[in-house]
Structures are given as C-alpha cells and as structure tokens.
Amino acid sequence: MHFTRIDKRFSWTRTRFHLFVFILCGVLLSGCASVAERICVEQRTAFDIGSATMKMKTAKVDQCRAVIVDIIQKKEVKVPFAENTQNKILSREIQNKGFGELLALKKEALAQGSQNFAGVATAAFRQADNTPDFLAELKEKTGINIKLISQDDEAVLGYKAALAHSKNPPGNMIVWDIGGNSMQMIMKDGHQNYRVYRGHLASISFKNQIIEKIHRRPAGTHTSPNPIGGKNLTAALELAMNAASDVPDEIKNSIRDAGTIVVGIGGVHNQSIRKQVENNKAYAREDLFKALRDKLDLTDTQIGGHYADTDVSNLIIVLGFMNKLDIKEVHLMDVNLTDGVLIDPACW
C-alpha cells in the first residue's frame, strides 16, 4: 500500500509536469507567432499617378505573405495630366499641380504614421517625353520614388491586387481595368502564363473620339462630349466595339467559357460605373442601358461631379466592349493599382 500511494503520487506529479510543459510550449509558440507577425507587418503608403487621377492608399501589409492586413486610409484627387500634355510634353502648370497634390497626400499619410512610400506612373507618362525629368523632380520635391511602369506591368499589378483581394479566387478570372489613357484585360492561360490585352482606347481617349469623330469638334478646345445625344449612341457604341475587336482570341474564348468571371477593377468600374448603375457587386448590359437612357442628353452641369465629362462616355465604352465580347456580367472589386503596389516586393 505504501508503494502504491507513492506510485499514484508520482504519476499525478508527472501528469501535472506534462501539462505544465504543454501550456508553456503553447505560450512560447504563441509569443513567437506574435513576434513573427510584428516583424512581417509593415505600414506602407502607395501612390498611383494616372492620366487623370492621383490615388493614395495607406495600409498595414504582411510582407511575408504579400497580403494587405488593414486599410488605414485611401484618397484620390483629380489631376488631369493627359489633358495637359501638348506635343508629348507635360505642361509646367500640370507638373506643379502634381507636385502640390502629392505633397498634400504625403502629409496626410505622415499624420497616419506612415514612413514607407512608393508609387507608379502609368499611361500618360509613357507617352510624355519629359516624364523622366518630371519624375526626378517629383522625387526631389517629395522624397517619393515614383516608378514608370509598362502596360504589361500595369496589368500584372492589377491582377495580383485582385487575386490578393479574393478570398476564393475563381479558377478562370479575367481582370479588366480601364484608366484614363489605357485599358488592360489580363488572364492566366493553362500554363499559368499571363495573357494581356493592351488597349489604348480608355476613358479620356474615348471621350475625345466622340468629340472629334461624332461631334466633329477639336478635342483640344472642347474637353467634354456632353450632351452626347441619344441619336449618337449607335455611332459611339461602334467606336468602342471596333476597339474591342483587337482583344486577343485567347481572352475572347475564355470569356465565353461558363466558368470564367470577369472582374472590373480601378476607377472607371468602381467609381464611375458603380455609382451610375447603383450596384455594389456586379452589373450587366441591361444596367448600363438603363443608366444611359436618362443621361445622353445631359450637360456636364446637369450630370454633376468632378468627372462629369467622362461619366456618360464611360458607360458607352464599357457597354460597347461587353456587347462585342459577349460579356454577360462584370463583377466589381474595389481595388486599384495602389493595392498591387502595396504587396509587390519589387516596389519596396
């Protein structure tokens, strides 16, 4: 009996010891995970300097997993670089406006505790001859390195942003981004290689075509196509559909596959079109027709807002592409190039 009591006591002590070790390991592992998370997570601010808009996004980013953990602040301001470029030269006035707006955005980011900044410049700057000088002066005045990227890089950044934003990304996803002076559609083929449509008809260039080819006015002296006019809708749609003919067959064929989802990212889809169709998740061609019906004969003043000159023509270019490519529905995803910059190691 004496030895039995000792054995039982020893057994109970050993059990408590194992329990203590188990709990201690759990605490240590939890602490290690917490330290690793703190090491991986960094606050960053990204900028997308586009043809008509400058965007900023500040976020906590897990750089180890290349995902955005928490968005702290986002903002965009209209800076019409493309429309202030003559003979492939950015005007001094628009350059100064760009410097001022970027400094103001950086000041807001600093107030949120940001110390890490990076950004990209897109279509309007690919076309301007004085872009290198502008970006060098921009860095000198603001301390921010803005990198000029190719149209392929722009498409890939958008695709990565959409993929990272998707909790359950579809197997076949086409990401569609429309900017001021360029349009991208991008997908991965069966070998996981990117296939890209590099379009040059976009929000600003399309409204200029309406001004020049339908209204027969010089786009340089007329900045708005409104009112477009109901009688001109067919001709405007034809302009967009003709451009859509250049989309690669591989993308066209994928659109027709039942399992393919077309995802709209960027400002045209998620700011301009979203507010006009009043749908936060997706829109179909019927939604665009309905939104157009009451706006074709309106002036900029009647339309209202900072982007009144392109809102109606944006509906038309998107509808034209959807008609030509037989896109049944566009799923909205509120991401843009800043999301791609935030998670791309090459930008940091």
Q: Which strand-content bin applies to the residues?
A: 15-25%
Main pleated-sheet profile: 6 strands, mixed
Number of helices: 13
Low-confidence blocks of residues: none
Q: Please trace the helix and strand order, writing H or E for each element.
A: HEEEEEHEHHEHEEEHHHEHEHHHEH
From the 3D structure, determine the CATH topology of the largest domain. Nucleotidyltransferase, domain 5
CATH class bucket of the largest domain:
Alpha Beta
- Rg is 26 Å
**Form type:** globular
Structural class assignment: alpha/beta
User: Do you know the CATH architecture of the largest domain?
Assistant: 2-Layer Sandwich
Mean pLDDT: 92
CATH-assigned homologous superfamily of the largest domain: Exopolyphosphatase. Domain 2
Q: How many domains?
A: 2
Percent of residues in helices comes to 40-55%
* Span of the ends, CA to CA: 72 Å
What attributes does this structure have?
2 domains, Nucleotidyltransferase, domain 5, 6-stranded mixed sheet, 5-stranded mixed sheet, single chain, 13 strands, 348 residues, alpha/beta, 13 helices
Model description:
- With 348 residues, the protein is an alpha/beta fold.
- It has 2 domains: 41-151, 2-Layer Sandwich (Nucleotidyltransferase, domain 5); 167-332, Exopolyphosphatase. Domain 2 (Nucleotidyltransferase, domain 5, 2-Layer Sandwich).
- 50% of the residues lie in helices and 22% in strands.
- It is built from 13 helices and 13 strands.
- It has helices at residues 2-40, 92-111, 123-127, 131-142, 151-165, 203-214, 233-244, 249-256, 266-277, 285-293, 300-303, 308-325, 337-343; strands at 41-49, 53-62, 67-78, 85-86, 89-90, 117-121, 146-148, 172-178, 183-188, 194-199, 260-265, 282-284, 329-332.
- The strands form 3 sheets. A 6-stranded mixed sheet has the order 10-9-8-11-13-12, sandwiched between helices.
- A hairpin with a 4-residue loop joins strand 2 and strand 3.
- Helix 9 (266-277) packs across helix 12 (308-325).
- The mean pLDDT is 92.
